[in-house]
Amino acid sequence: MARSWVLVFTTFPVPTETFVQREVEALIEQGVPLRLYSLWGGAQTFRGVPIQRLGIAGILRALLRLPYWLWRAPGALRAVLGLMLYRRMPNLTNYGEQWLGLAAGLLYAREWAQADVRHAVWASAPTTALWLTRRLTGASYSFGAHAYDLFEHGGDMLLREKIAEGLGVRTSTEAGRQRLLAAGSAPQRTWLIRRGLMDWPRPSPVRPRRQPLRVLSVGRLVEKMGYSLQWRVYERLQAQGSAFEARVMGGGPLRERLQADLQRQGLDRCVVLEGAQPFSAVVEALAWADVLLFTGVVAASGDRAGLPNIIGEALAAGVPVVATPVGGVAEVIRPGENGLLAEDVSGLAEALDAVQQDDALAEGLHQAGQRWAREHFDARRNVARLREILEGLA
Q: pTM for this structure?
């Protein structure tokens, strides 16, 4: 086992990223000696492990390190600053993330160089920090890339450099893997490793009469989650006289607009926006639900979901999934076997009707979803595979 691991996050822990927390829990459980770094905000500890937070104070301290690195590695630092000044930035957020990562690299490079494994959870600021560390000290790194850091506005602005200089990249979908290959990642250094659960839910049996149909949707209220499409599906169900009630869990910048749309479309009595909820509430909602509805789309920025973790969580709980085939969803959902896929309002409404009316279909999806999750969505097993790869490269 490696003597020490450095894990770098943008923010850790994040309430909506329980999948990341589960992976860190699995590493701790397996006895991995972790050093956790959160570049912006986050908690002070996680499961008893201290979290080193950069923040504004750390950025100011990083500026004090600048003369040292200009003396020790002037060529490397000038090359990095040149890239930052002359590379076209895809958007202001990603550009700001690069500077955050550079500050972390300046501050922690000497410290991180002493670790055996250095891994960034996202391709944006965390990987920028380790990429600069490599340029300054020669210390190797690996990183993860999954959704917005691959697709939004074309992905991270330094993605090709980070791929070229890293040991390898972990992603959680085949769609992500293909994007990385297109950006120059070698197949043998591009690792498709799913996320997963630590604790398995106790699936509720399929309700014999699903009247009204209990529909659950979980996700941030942002464009790529396709809630405008989902509202139109509910309109179709209402117009054709289908009995249903829907709960939508998640917060985000579109909440006020989406709530107004529900009222304007006459859906506010049967569709409830519940806001962001803890994972325990999501588990309870899965026990209530007859079906999970995911209506993700490709946003105007190019951003899209990878494989939404709620889909794996629903499959594990035996909840049938009806979804659009965006991102990595179609890699997992095999239509008629462990879920149903459709691209438009009519198809999604028909799929929901099928789950409501066809007992044999609902029971088959219930059983097949659990089998898929047990085989592919085990956090302990998947993290052990990542650990084996990274420690083999250390």
A: 0.93
Q: In 31-103, which ranges are E strands? A: 34-38, 45-46, 49-53
Alpha-carbon gap, residue 203 to 287, rounded angstroms: 7
pLDDT band at 1 (very low <50, low <70, confident <90, very high): low
Inter-residue contact 244 to 215 (CB < 8 Å): yes
Percent of the chain with pLDDT over 70: 99
Q: Which CATH architecture has domain 5-196+378-393?
A: 3-Layer(aba) Sandwich (3.40)
Q: How far apart are CA 84 and CA 109, in angstroms?
A: 19
Task: Kindly report, residue by residue over 114-153, the tens digit of the pLDDT.
Answer: 999 999 999 999 999 999 999 999 999 999 998 889 988 8
The answer to whether residues 383 and 30 touch, using CB atoms and an 8 Å cutoff, is: yes
| AA identity, residue 42 | G
Q: Structure tokens of 131?
A: 């990429």
Q: What is the end-to-end Cα distance of the chain in Å, rounded? A: 10
Domain locations in the chain as residue ranges: 5-196+378-393, 213-376
CA–CA separation, 227 vs 358, rounded Å?
26
User: Count of alpha carbons within 13 Å of 78, Cβ hemisphere only?
Assistant: 6
